[in-house]
Design brief:
The chain has a seven-stranded parallel beta sheet with strand order 3-2-1-4-5-6-9, sandwiched between helices. Strands 7-11 form a two-stranded parallel ribbon. The chain folds into two domains: 159 residues, Rossmann fold (3-Layer(aba) Sandwich), CATH 3.40.50; 109 residues, NAD(P)-binding Rossmann-like Domain (Rossmann fold), CATH 3.40.50.720. It is an alpha/beta fold and 293 residues long. Helix 1 packs across helix 6, helix 7 packs parallel to helix 11 and helix 8 packs across helix 9. Helix 1 links the parallel strand 1 and strand 2. It contains twelve helices and eleven strands. Bound molecules: NADP nicotinamide-adenine-dinucleotide phosphate. NADP nicotinamide-adenine-dinucleotide phosphate binds next to helix 1.
Length: 293
């Protein structure tokens, strides 16, 4: 059986894809720029590869039929990597976003969206068999957003506290990805995936407080305050090329557009798996340590 190549194997979703494939006994090759740092299970083949240097990615594709793709590298590097994949690989599962879902939260213009749309169009034209995963907000954003404030005290200041989202556990996104990688019948599918419930940001922070056994004070921040204050509060571990201000602007415009509306909740996960996706509370209970830093 040829190995499945996971690009983005050390990230929130890719690491789960690697773990779940490995648990199923599927041969998996995990690509990373820093193979000495990545620590998946012993059965996983870890290979070095940098998407901005196609010659380092080519060996990772040897003998590979199927690829899981997370793209956070500079967009200019994508065409050369796609060309390599289109020559060697049959099937690709791409981690995208709900670009076509007609909810204002998902329809605000931003640079990330443009890149994802271009990547999708190129994959569709490549001749590869493709599946697009379209998850909404990741539950694991919480520690990046609120971790620093939680470690400093009990006051959490945040914008758009009454705007709801339906955060999804990255492991649930990965579970659908693993099916699309391993089973037939997912070609051309676009799976919009969310958590099971619409929760305001205030409710999400309260849940985190309750899971941590802390009485948090939650205070609304205006968008202008957010623009100034969140730059130093958010901890994304982002690539140096990524502008934190642009990410904050993207979030503010999505939350602003969704004010007064329930979050979009998809039933796709349950339709595919026959089980319910994890709630935000369940995710927070499993990941309480991530908030403590
Ligand atoms: N956060 C959300 O709420 C949300 C919602 C919907 C969609 N999304 C989409 O999800 C994607 C991010 O997924 P994620 O959070 O799982 O990723 P992540 O945790 O940010 O990890 C990024 C992965 O990409 C790899 N990578 C980055 N640059 C690379 C390069 N030049 N060469 C090789 N590998 C590289 C990193 O590997 P190494 O560092 O080990 O090399 C890492 O494994 C984005 O496309 C985002 O738009 C996010």
């Amino acid at each position: 059986m040829s190995p499945i190549l996971v690009i983005g194997s050390t990230g929130h979703v890719g690491s789960q894809v690697v773990a779940q494939l490995s648990d199923k006994g599927v041969p998996v090759r995990a690509m990373t720029r820093k193979p000495g740092v990545a620590r998946p299970s012993a059965q996983v083949e870890v290979v070095q590869g940098d998407l901005t240097s196609p010659e380092t990615v080519e060996p990772a594709l040897n003998g590979v039929d199927t690829v899981f793709l997370v793209w956070t590298a500079p967009p200019a590097a994508f065409p050369a990597i796609l060309e390599l994949m289109a020559r060697r690989v049959r099937r690709i599962v791409y981690l995208s976003a709900p670009l076509k879902t007609p909810h204002p939260f998902f329809q605000q213009p931003n640079a990330t969206r443009v890149v994802a749309e271009q990547i999708e169009r190129s994959i569709e034209a490549s001749g590869l068999e493709w599946t697009f995963l379209r998850p909404g907000m990741f539950a694991c954003n919480g520690p990046h957003w609120w971790g620093q404030q939680l470690r400093a005290g009990d006051l959490i200041r945040w914008p758009y506290l009454d705007v709801p989202t339906a955060p999804i556990d990255p492991a649930d996104i990965a579970a659908i990805g693993v099916r699309a990688l391993c089973e037939n019948g997912h070609a051309g599918a676009e799976y919009v995936l969310t958590g099971p419930e619409s929760l305001t940001q205030r409710e999400q922070i309260s849940i985190v407080g309750s899971v941590l056994g802390r009485a948090l004070r939650i205070e609304e921040m205006t968008p202008d305050e957010a623009r100034k204050e969140l730059v130093s509060v958010m901890d994304w571990g982002m690539a140096p090329s990524t502008s934190v201000s642009a990410v904050i602007e993207k979030l503010l415009s999505a939350w602003g557009a969704a004010a007064g509306l329930p979050a979009f909740v998809s039933t796709r996960f349950s339709e595919i798996t026959g089980t319910r996706p994890r709630t935000f509370r369940q995710w927070a209970e499993l990941h309480a340590r991530d908030f403590r830093g």
